[in-house]
Specification:
Blueprint (H helix, E strand, L loop, with lengths): L24 E4 L4 E4 L2 E2 H7 L2 H10 L5 H13 L5 H8 L7 H15 L8 H25 L14 H10 L5 H14 L6 H10 L5 H12 L7 H12 L5 H10 L17 H13 L8 H16 L8 H11 L7 H22 L29
Antiparallel strand pairs: 1-2, 2-3
Bound molecules: acetyl coenzyme *A.
Length: about 375
């Protein structure tokens, strides 16, 4: 038996390995800078809307009013989902994870709207519009169905985020709450070569249709090391329960070599700039909801986490305060990643468009560490022993 002798430079998790050239977003992890198409996210969070930011990400320019009006009208017109997609969602187990329901429904959308020629501009434009418009409707439908409520039809007179909240609750939301959630969507819309975007790009590079691209990305976003961390970080805060318990809990967790959920990032070595804005937004909405100590516990966790982990470049990330914010707004924990997906669909699609413009199939190499030339031993002569 011989071992492979070919050795290439190997970076676990592809850390530091560029997977694409891109002009969609930029991160400086040392200074905490995040730009979409060159515009700082703090500026977008303050002045833009999710759909305007989506336009910027997709088309590399801020729209003039007529362009924005057209884009918003197109998205608004495509919010409804076919009753057969609703039937499909109805047939899923109500105790399932919402990200699985979203992934299944997005994959099914592709069967209703075949988009085989991905280089066709019409296919690109309309599938992009459909996905951005329909993902919130799917998320809201599963949210209601698993509580035993019927899905609510979208309302064309409501903006993107107000309509989403309306489809969840059947109430037109307070303008401040809708604005805050819209800002969350802006903050989650794009983030360079993260795991779900990479997963979507690999799928895109096979020239699969955009529904398949997005459903791949949704599956990858679900994991607790990525978008699933918002759910897990709130579950952790609930387990901690009180400010007094923060320090002993964290010390015990770190001693057991367990991670603090919502902390750490491959790129950021300072506090995630999105977490800073989300923390401020949580403070802003608190007046609208029942008093809760969750934010106070979270801030104490951050304080103790900083004390113990900052020297390793580990700070609060986007999922830490987004979880706190969504929980404060009364949403179910396992739906947090679906809200992330509603936002990130813009970034995934921007990367899809960029990839197929100059496509090269992703087909990386590996370093083989197994055996060669093994004999096929008949079953009655095998020793077993696993
Ligand atoms: N709590 C405690 N220690 C941590 C944490 C954390 N949250 N994150 C990293 N570390 C430590 C690791 O234990 C490891 O320590 P060691 O060198 O002593 O063994 C070191 O930092 C490096 O950790 P890795 O996981 O190898 O670093 P990586 O760059 O892969 O980390 C990751 C990135 C996966 C996000 C990690 O920080 C983590 O698991 N965080 C918790 C989950 C989370 O919040 N994910 C959301 C990220 S943001 C997003 O995806 C939108």
């Amino acid at each position: 038996m011989t071992k492979s002798t070919t050795m290439h430079e190997f970076s676990p998790g592809l850390a530091g390995v560029p997977a694409a050239k891109s002009s969609i977003s930029f991160v400086n992890g040392q200074t905490g800078l995040l730009e979409y198409r060159g515009v700082r996210i703090e500026e977008l969070a303050e002045h833009s809307s999710f759909l305007e930011t989506t336009y910027l990400l997709l088309y590399d320019q801020l729209p003039v009013q007529t362009e924005l009006d057209r884009f918003v009208a197109d998205v608004t017109q495509h919010r409804r989902i076919k009753y057969r997609i609703t039937d499909l969602i109805k047939s899923l187990p109500e105790h399932g994870h919402p990200m699985d329901a979203l992934q299944a429904a997005v994959a099914a959308l592709g069967m209703f709207y075949p988009a085989r020629n991905v280089l066709d501009r019409q296919v690109q434009d309309w599938s992009t519009i459909r996905l951005i418009a329909k993902v919130p409707t799917i998320v809201a439908a599963y949210y209601r169905l698993r509580r035993g409520d019927e899905p609510i039809q979208p309302r064309d007179d409501l903006d993107h985020t107000s309509n989403f909240l309306y489809m969840l609750t059947e109430k037109v939301p307070d303008a401040l709450i809708a604005k805050v959630l819209d800002t969350c969507l802006i903050l989650h819309a794009e983030h360079t070569m993260n795991a779900s975007t990479f997963s979507g790009l690999v799928t895109a590079s096979t020239l699969a249709d955009p529904y398949t691209v997005v459903s791949s990305a949704v599956g990858t976003l679900k994991g607790p090391l990525h978008g699933g961390a918002s759910q897990e970080s709130v579950e952790m805060l609930e387990e901690i329960g009180s400010i007094e318990n923060v320090r002993p809990y964290i010390k015990q967790r770190l001693a057991a070599k367990q991670k603090l959920m919502g902390f750490g990032h491959r790129i950021y070595k300072v506090k995630d700039p999105r977490a800073i804005v989300l923390q401020q937004l949580t403070q802003k909405v608190l007046v609208h909801y029942r008093p809760s100590s969750l934010l106070k516990v979270a801030e104490e966790v951050e304080h103790v986490g900083e004390e113990l982990l900052a020297n390793k470049g580990i700070h609060a990330n986007v999922d830490f305060y987004s979880g706190v914010l969504y929980k404060t707004m009364g949403l179910d924990e396992d739906f947090f990643p679906t809200i992330f997906a509603m936002a990130r669909v813009s970034g995934w699609l921007a990367h899809w468009l960029e990839q197929i413009k100059d496509n090269k199939l992703f087909r990386p190499d590996q370093i083989y560490e197994g055996q060669h030339d093994r004999a096929y031993v008949p079953i009655d002569r095998r020793l077993g022993g696993l």
